[in-house]
Specification:
By secondary structure, the protein is α+β, with helices and mostly antiparallel strands. Helix content is about 45%, strand content about 15%. A hairpin with an 8-residue loop joins strand 6 and strand 7.
Length: about 400
Amino acid sequence: MDFELSGEDAAFRDEVRGWLSDHREQIAHTRAVDWEAGGEAFERYRSWERALFDAGLGAVAWPEEYGGRGASMVQQAIFNEEYILAGAPDRINRLGMGLLGPTLMVYGTAEQRSRHLPRILACDEIWCQGYSEPDAGSDLASLRTRAVREGDEFVVDGQKTWTSLGRFGDWIFTLVRTDPAAPKHRGITFLLVDMHSPGVEVRPLVQIDGSARFAEVFFTGVRVPAANVVGRVDDGWAVAMTLLGFERGGGLYGPALFHRILRDVIDLSRREPRGDGVAADDPDVRRRVAQSYIETRVYELTVQRALTRLARGEAPGPEASLSKLYWSEMKVRLDELALDILGPRAELGRGSPEAEHDGGWYADYLYARASTIFAGTSEVQKNIVAQRVLGLPRE
Protein backbone atom coordinates (compact mmCIF):
# COMPACT_ATOMS: atom_id res chain seq x y z
CA MET A 1 0.00 0.00 0.00
CA ASP A 2 1.26 3.47 -0.89
CA PHE A 3 -0.04 6.16 1.47
CA GLU A 4 1.69 9.09 -0.26
CA LEU A 5 -0.46 11.26 -2.53
CA SER A 6 0.80 11.92 -6.03
CA GLY A 7 1.07 15.52 -7.17
CA GLU A 8 -2.14 15.13 -9.16
CA ASP A 9 -4.00 13.67 -6.20
CA ALA A 10 -2.71 16.38 -3.86
CA ALA A 11 -3.91 19.05 -6.32
CA PHE A 12 -7.32 17.38 -6.47
CA ARG A 13 -7.51 17.33 -2.65
CA ASP A 14 -6.68 21.05 -2.53
CA GLU A 15 -9.35 21.78 -5.15
CA VAL A 16 -12.02 19.89 -3.20
CA ARG A 17 -10.95 21.37 0.11
CA GLY A 18 -11.04 24.88 -1.36
CA TRP A 19 -14.47 24.42 -2.94
CA LEU A 20 -15.94 23.10 0.31
CA SER A 21 -14.38 25.99 2.21
CA ASP A 22 -15.90 28.48 -0.26
CA HIS A 23 -19.33 26.92 0.36
CA ARG A 24 -19.26 26.88 4.16
CA GLU A 25 -22.32 29.11 4.39
CA GLN A 26 -24.37 26.86 2.11
CA ILE A 27 -23.21 23.82 4.08
CA ALA A 28 -24.36 25.42 7.34
CA HIS A 29 -27.65 26.59 5.77
CA THR A 30 -28.37 23.11 4.45
CA ARG A 31 -27.48 21.26 7.63
CA ALA A 32 -29.57 23.64 9.75
CA VAL A 33 -32.64 21.56 8.89
CA ASP A 34 -33.51 17.86 8.98
CA TRP A 35 -34.08 16.68 5.42
CA GLU A 36 -36.36 13.92 6.69
CA ALA A 37 -38.90 16.62 7.55
CA GLY A 38 -39.53 16.83 3.82
CA GLY A 39 -40.82 19.94 2.03
CA GLU A 40 -38.47 22.92 2.07
CA ALA A 41 -35.94 21.04 4.21
CA PHE A 42 -35.62 18.33 1.60
CA GLU A 43 -35.36 20.88 -1.20
CA ARG A 44 -32.39 22.52 0.54
CA TYR A 45 -30.53 19.23 0.28
CA ARG A 46 -31.56 18.84 -3.33
CA SER A 47 -30.17 22.32 -4.06
CA TRP A 48 -26.93 21.30 -2.40
CA GLU A 49 -26.70 18.24 -4.63
CA ARG A 50 -27.19 20.44 -7.68
CA ALA A 51 -24.39 22.73 -6.52
CA LEU A 52 -22.09 19.70 -6.32
CA PHE A 53 -23.23 18.62 -9.79
CA ASP A 54 -22.59 22.05 -11.30
CA ALA A 55 -19.08 22.01 -9.80
CA GLY A 56 -18.35 18.59 -11.30
CA LEU A 57 -18.31 17.02 -7.85
CA GLY A 58 -21.56 15.05 -7.97
CA ALA A 59 -19.87 11.69 -8.48
CA VAL A 60 -16.21 12.30 -9.23
CA ALA A 61 -15.35 8.68 -10.12
CA TRP A 62 -18.14 8.30 -12.67
CA PRO A 63 -16.96 8.34 -16.30
CA GLU A 64 -17.18 11.70 -18.02
CA GLU A 65 -19.66 10.33 -20.57
CA TYR A 66 -22.12 9.78 -17.70
CA GLY A 67 -21.62 13.19 -16.12
CA GLY A 68 -18.74 12.42 -13.77
CA ARG A 69 -15.17 13.65 -14.10
CA GLY A 70 -13.48 10.28 -14.60
CA ALA A 71 -11.48 10.56 -11.39
CA SER A 72 -9.63 7.59 -9.93
CA MET A 73 -10.84 5.57 -6.96
CA VAL A 74 -8.07 7.20 -4.92
CA GLN A 75 -9.50 10.62 -5.77
CA GLN A 76 -12.99 9.38 -4.95
CA ALA A 77 -11.70 8.38 -1.51
CA ILE A 78 -9.98 11.77 -1.16
CA PHE A 79 -13.24 13.54 -2.00
CA ASN A 80 -15.18 11.44 0.50
CA GLU A 81 -12.72 12.17 3.27
CA GLU A 82 -12.66 15.92 2.63
CA TYR A 83 -16.45 15.97 2.36
CA ILE A 84 -16.93 14.32 5.75
CA LEU A 85 -14.23 16.34 7.50
CA ALA A 86 -15.90 19.54 6.21
CA GLY A 87 -19.15 18.46 7.87
CA ALA A 88 -20.97 18.59 4.54
CA PRO A 89 -24.64 17.48 4.27
CA ASP A 90 -25.97 13.95 3.83
CA ARG A 91 -26.15 12.78 0.21
CA ILE A 92 -29.90 12.37 -0.27
CA ASN A 93 -29.60 10.56 -3.62
CA ARG A 94 -26.99 8.13 -2.37
CA LEU A 95 -28.94 5.08 -3.56
CA GLY A 96 -29.07 6.41 -7.09
CA MET A 97 -25.45 7.52 -7.16
CA GLY A 98 -23.85 4.76 -5.14
CA LEU A 99 -25.93 1.72 -6.09
CA LEU A 100 -28.13 2.06 -9.16
CA GLY A 101 -25.81 4.30 -11.20
CA PRO A 102 -22.82 1.91 -11.11
CA THR A 103 -25.17 -1.05 -11.73
CA LEU A 104 -26.64 0.61 -14.83
CA MET A 105 -23.10 1.14 -16.11
CA VAL A 106 -22.65 -2.64 -15.96
CA TYR A 107 -26.08 -3.97 -16.99
CA GLY A 108 -28.13 -1.05 -18.26
CA THR A 109 -29.04 -0.42 -21.89
CA ALA A 110 -27.79 2.69 -23.68
CA GLU A 111 -31.29 4.15 -23.39
CA GLN A 112 -31.45 3.47 -19.65
CA ARG A 113 -28.06 5.07 -19.08
CA SER A 114 -28.80 8.18 -21.12
CA ARG A 115 -32.26 8.49 -19.54
CA HIS A 116 -31.37 8.07 -15.88
CA LEU A 117 -27.69 8.71 -15.15
CA PRO A 118 -27.69 12.49 -15.83
CA ARG A 119 -30.90 12.92 -13.83
CA ILE A 120 -29.44 10.97 -10.92
CA LEU A 121 -26.37 13.19 -10.82
CA ALA A 122 -28.42 16.39 -11.08
CA CYS A 123 -30.74 15.07 -8.35
CA ASP A 124 -33.73 15.45 -10.67
CA GLU A 125 -34.59 11.81 -9.86
CA ILE A 126 -34.50 10.53 -6.29
CA TRP A 127 -34.18 6.74 -6.16
CA CYS A 128 -35.29 4.30 -3.49
CA GLN A 129 -34.46 0.63 -3.04
CA GLY A 130 -37.17 -2.05 -3.18
CA TYR A 131 -35.55 -5.28 -2.05
CA SER A 132 -36.99 -6.34 1.34
CA GLU A 133 -40.40 -7.97 1.60
CA PRO A 134 -42.64 -9.03 4.50
CA ASP A 135 -41.88 -12.55 5.80
CA ALA A 136 -38.73 -12.75 3.67
CA GLY A 137 -36.25 -11.83 6.40
CA SER A 138 -32.69 -12.06 5.11
CA ASP A 139 -33.70 -14.56 2.44
CA LEU A 140 -33.98 -12.04 -0.38
CA ALA A 141 -34.64 -14.72 -3.00
CA SER A 142 -37.90 -15.69 -1.32
CA LEU A 143 -39.56 -12.52 -2.63
CA ARG A 144 -43.19 -12.79 -3.75
CA THR A 145 -43.88 -9.55 -5.61
CA ARG A 146 -44.93 -10.68 -9.06
CA ALA A 147 -44.67 -9.17 -12.52
CA VAL A 148 -46.67 -10.66 -15.40
CA ARG A 149 -45.81 -9.82 -18.99
CA GLU A 150 -48.62 -8.27 -21.07
CA GLY A 151 -47.34 -7.19 -24.48
CA ASP A 152 -44.68 -4.52 -24.04
CA GLU A 153 -45.43 -4.10 -20.34
CA PHE A 154 -45.17 -5.92 -17.04
CA VAL A 155 -48.03 -5.74 -14.53
CA VAL A 156 -46.64 -5.64 -10.98
CA ASP A 157 -48.48 -6.70 -7.81
CA GLY A 158 -47.00 -7.10 -4.33
CA GLN A 159 -45.44 -5.33 -1.38
CA LYS A 160 -42.00 -4.14 -0.38
CA THR A 161 -41.04 -3.10 3.14
CA TRP A 162 -38.16 -1.24 4.81
CA THR A 163 -37.84 0.70 1.56
CA SER A 164 -35.00 3.16 2.01
CA LEU A 165 -35.98 6.70 0.90
CA GLY A 166 -39.43 5.36 -0.01
CA ARG A 167 -41.11 8.62 1.05
CA PHE A 168 -39.01 10.68 -1.31
CA GLY A 169 -38.42 8.36 -4.23
CA ASP A 170 -39.35 9.37 -7.77
CA TRP A 171 -38.20 5.94 -8.95
CA ILE A 172 -37.58 2.59 -7.32
CA PHE A 173 -35.25 -0.19 -8.42
CA THR A 174 -36.79 -3.43 -7.36
CA LEU A 175 -36.80 -7.19 -7.72
CA VAL A 176 -39.91 -9.00 -8.97
CA ARG A 177 -40.69 -12.65 -9.60
CA THR A 178 -41.41 -13.25 -13.26
CA ASP A 179 -41.29 -17.07 -13.28
CA PRO A 180 -42.92 -18.59 -10.17
CA ALA A 181 -42.09 -22.13 -11.36
CA ALA A 182 -38.33 -21.53 -11.49
CA PRO A 183 -35.93 -22.25 -8.59
CA LYS A 184 -36.10 -19.32 -6.21
CA HIS A 185 -32.81 -17.70 -7.25
CA ARG A 186 -33.98 -17.79 -10.86
CA GLY A 187 -37.15 -16.40 -12.34
CA ILE A 188 -36.36 -13.03 -10.73
CA THR A 189 -36.14 -9.80 -12.74
CA PHE A 190 -34.57 -6.44 -11.86
CA LEU A 191 -37.08 -3.70 -12.74
CA LEU A 192 -37.12 0.11 -12.69
CA VAL A 193 -40.52 1.50 -11.63
CA ASP A 194 -41.76 5.09 -11.74
CA MET A 195 -43.07 5.78 -8.23
CA HIS A 196 -45.63 8.20 -9.67
CA SER A 197 -47.31 5.41 -11.65
CA PRO A 198 -50.98 4.60 -10.91
CA GLY A 199 -51.20 1.74 -8.41
CA VAL A 200 -48.11 2.67 -6.34
CA GLU A 201 -48.87 3.43 -2.68
CA VAL A 202 -46.29 4.54 -0.10
CA ARG A 203 -46.80 4.25 3.66
CA PRO A 204 -43.98 5.71 5.84
CA LEU A 205 -42.69 3.49 8.66
CA VAL A 206 -41.93 5.38 11.88
CA GLN A 207 -39.00 3.76 13.68
CA ILE A 208 -37.95 3.59 17.30
CA ASP A 209 -35.90 6.81 16.97
CA GLY A 210 -38.97 8.71 15.74
CA SER A 211 -37.76 9.09 12.17
CA ALA A 212 -39.38 7.60 9.08
CA ARG A 213 -36.39 6.74 6.94
CA PHE A 214 -38.12 3.66 5.57
CA ALA A 215 -41.52 2.99 4.05
CA GLU A 216 -43.79 0.24 2.86
CA VAL A 217 -44.49 0.30 -0.86
CA PHE A 218 -47.54 -1.43 -2.33
CA PHE A 219 -47.93 -2.27 -6.02
CA THR A 220 -51.44 -2.91 -7.31
CA GLY A 221 -51.67 -3.56 -11.03
CA VAL A 222 -48.77 -1.21 -11.77
CA ARG A 223 -47.93 -1.20 -15.46
CA VAL A 224 -44.21 -0.94 -16.21
CA PRO A 225 -42.65 -0.81 -19.70
CA ALA A 226 -40.64 -3.92 -20.53
CA ALA A 227 -37.85 -1.54 -21.54
CA ASN A 228 -37.35 -0.89 -17.80
CA VAL A 229 -35.89 -4.36 -17.23
CA VAL A 230 -32.20 -4.15 -16.29
CA GLY A 231 -30.23 -7.15 -17.53
CA ARG A 232 -32.25 -10.12 -18.75
CA VAL A 233 -35.74 -11.21 -17.77
CA ASP A 234 -35.62 -14.01 -15.14
CA ASP A 235 -31.90 -13.34 -14.56
CA GLY A 236 -32.16 -10.44 -12.14
CA TRP A 237 -30.34 -12.22 -9.32
CA ALA A 238 -26.97 -11.49 -10.92
CA VAL A 239 -27.91 -7.82 -11.25
CA ALA A 240 -29.10 -7.76 -7.63
CA MET A 241 -25.83 -9.25 -6.36
CA THR A 242 -23.76 -6.78 -8.35
CA LEU A 243 -25.71 -3.92 -6.80
CA LEU A 244 -25.24 -5.39 -3.30
CA GLY A 245 -21.50 -5.59 -3.98
CA PHE A 246 -21.48 -1.84 -4.58
CA GLU A 247 -23.49 -1.33 -1.39
CA ARG A 248 -21.35 -3.50 0.88
CA GLY A 249 -18.10 -2.20 -0.55
CA GLY A 250 -19.30 1.39 -0.31
CA GLY A 251 -17.53 1.94 3.00
CA LEU A 252 -14.67 3.76 1.31
CA TYR A 253 -15.89 6.92 2.97
CA GLY A 254 -16.06 5.21 6.34
CA PRO A 255 -12.67 5.86 7.94
CA ALA A 256 -13.09 9.63 7.94
CA LEU A 257 -16.60 9.26 9.32
CA PHE A 258 -15.46 7.01 12.15
CA HIS A 259 -12.50 9.25 12.97
CA ARG A 260 -14.97 12.16 13.24
CA ILE A 261 -17.30 10.19 15.50
CA LEU A 262 -14.40 9.08 17.70
CA ARG A 263 -13.18 12.68 17.92
CA ASP A 264 -16.64 13.69 19.15
CA VAL A 265 -16.67 10.83 21.69
CA ILE A 266 -13.30 11.92 23.07
CA ASP A 267 -14.51 15.51 23.28
CA LEU A 268 -17.62 14.32 25.11
CA SER A 269 -15.55 12.30 27.60
CA ARG A 270 -13.49 15.39 28.42
CA ARG A 271 -16.61 17.48 29.18
CA GLU A 272 -18.99 15.05 30.83
CA PRO A 273 -18.78 15.24 34.68
CA ARG A 274 -18.04 12.03 36.56
CA GLY A 275 -17.30 11.97 40.29
CA ASP A 276 -14.92 14.80 41.09
CA GLY A 277 -13.65 14.98 37.54
CA VAL A 278 -14.79 14.07 34.03
CA ALA A 279 -15.53 10.80 32.24
CA ALA A 280 -12.11 10.81 30.60
CA ASP A 281 -10.57 10.23 34.05
CA ASP A 282 -12.36 6.88 34.34
CA PRO A 283 -9.93 4.02 33.52
CA ASP A 284 -12.68 1.99 31.85
CA VAL A 285 -13.65 4.89 29.58
CA ARG A 286 -9.99 5.44 28.68
CA ARG A 287 -9.58 1.74 27.86
CA ARG A 288 -12.65 1.73 25.62
CA VAL A 289 -11.60 4.94 23.86
CA ALA A 290 -8.19 3.38 23.16
CA GLN A 291 -9.86 0.21 21.87
CA SER A 292 -12.11 2.31 19.62
CA TYR A 293 -9.10 4.11 18.21
CA ILE A 294 -7.41 0.77 17.44
CA GLU A 295 -10.56 -0.52 15.72
CA THR A 296 -10.95 2.67 13.70
CA ARG A 297 -7.31 2.51 12.62
CA VAL A 298 -7.64 -1.19 11.67
CA TYR A 299 -10.69 -0.36 9.58
CA GLU A 300 -8.85 2.50 7.90
CA LEU A 301 -5.99 0.17 6.91
CA THR A 302 -8.47 -2.44 5.67
CA VAL A 303 -10.15 0.14 3.45
CA GLN A 304 -6.80 1.35 2.15
CA ARG A 305 -5.92 -2.22 1.21
CA ALA A 306 -9.21 -2.56 -0.67
CA LEU A 307 -8.61 0.80 -2.31
CA THR A 308 -5.19 -0.33 -3.47
CA ARG A 309 -6.81 -3.33 -5.17
CA LEU A 310 -9.36 -1.16 -6.91
CA ALA A 311 -6.68 1.30 -8.02
CA ARG A 312 -4.88 -1.60 -9.69
CA GLY A 313 -8.03 -2.42 -11.63
CA GLU A 314 -8.85 -5.50 -9.59
CA ALA A 315 -12.50 -6.23 -8.85
CA PRO A 316 -13.84 -6.12 -5.29
CA GLY A 317 -14.34 -9.62 -3.96
CA PRO A 318 -16.36 -11.13 -1.14
CA GLU A 319 -13.98 -9.30 1.20
CA ALA A 320 -16.55 -6.50 0.90
CA SER A 321 -18.59 -8.55 3.35
CA LEU A 322 -15.72 -8.46 5.84
CA SER A 323 -15.63 -4.67 5.58
CA LYS A 324 -19.40 -4.36 5.94
CA LEU A 325 -19.47 -6.65 8.97
CA TYR A 326 -16.64 -4.74 10.63
CA TRP A 327 -17.87 -1.17 10.21
CA SER A 328 -21.51 -1.88 11.00
CA GLU A 329 -20.72 -3.54 14.34
CA MET A 330 -18.00 -1.01 15.18
CA LYS A 331 -20.55 1.79 14.76
CA VAL A 332 -22.78 0.16 17.37
CA ARG A 333 -19.88 -0.05 19.86
CA LEU A 334 -18.99 3.62 19.35
CA ASP A 335 -22.55 4.73 20.00
CA GLU A 336 -22.76 2.51 23.09
CA LEU A 337 -19.60 4.12 24.44
CA ALA A 338 -21.05 7.60 23.92
CA LEU A 339 -24.24 6.64 25.79
CA ASP A 340 -22.26 5.10 28.66
CA ILE A 341 -20.27 8.33 28.98
CA LEU A 342 -23.50 10.34 29.13
CA GLY A 343 -25.07 8.05 31.73
CA PRO A 344 -28.75 8.77 32.56
CA ARG A 345 -28.62 11.90 30.37
CA ALA A 346 -28.23 9.65 27.34
CA GLU A 347 -31.94 8.93 27.17
CA LEU A 348 -32.96 12.56 26.73
CA GLY A 349 -34.34 12.78 23.22
CA ARG A 350 -34.57 15.45 20.57
CA GLY A 351 -36.12 18.69 21.81
CA SER A 352 -35.09 18.17 25.42
CA PRO A 353 -33.16 21.26 26.65
CA GLU A 354 -30.72 19.10 28.63
CA ALA A 355 -30.05 16.66 25.80
CA GLU A 356 -26.50 16.46 24.49
CA HIS A 357 -26.26 17.19 20.78
CA ASP A 358 -30.09 17.55 20.73
CA GLY A 359 -30.46 13.85 21.51
CA GLY A 360 -28.40 12.93 18.47
CA TRP A 361 -26.29 10.34 20.28
CA TYR A 362 -29.38 8.46 21.42
CA ALA A 363 -30.97 8.63 17.98
CA ASP A 364 -27.74 7.41 16.36
CA TYR A 365 -27.53 4.55 18.85
CA LEU A 366 -31.07 3.42 18.05
CA TYR A 367 -30.49 3.67 14.30
CA ALA A 368 -27.08 1.98 14.44
CA ARG A 369 -28.81 -1.37 14.96
CA ALA A 370 -30.17 -1.04 11.44
CA SER A 371 -26.65 -0.95 10.03
CA THR A 372 -26.18 -4.57 11.15
CA ILE A 373 -29.24 -5.51 9.10
CA PHE A 374 -29.34 -3.46 5.89
CA ALA A 375 -27.16 -4.53 2.93
CA GLY A 376 -27.27 -8.04 4.40
CA THR A 377 -27.32 -8.92 8.10
CA SER A 378 -24.19 -9.62 10.10
CA GLU A 379 -25.15 -13.32 10.04
CA VAL A 380 -25.28 -13.28 6.23
CA GLN A 381 -21.89 -11.53 6.06
CA LYS A 382 -20.34 -14.09 8.41
CA ASN A 383 -21.54 -16.93 6.17
CA ILE A 384 -20.07 -15.23 3.08
CA VAL A 385 -16.74 -14.66 4.82
CA ALA A 386 -16.66 -18.25 6.10
CA GLN A 387 -17.48 -19.85 2.74
CA ARG A 388 -16.02 -17.51 0.12
CA VAL A 389 -13.07 -15.96 1.95
CA LEU A 390 -11.98 -18.70 4.34
CA GLY A 391 -13.16 -21.62 2.18
CA LEU A 392 -15.05 -23.33 4.98
CA PRO A 393 -17.78 -25.85 4.01
CA ARG A 394 -21.45 -24.89 3.88
CA GLU A 395 -23.49 -25.72 6.93
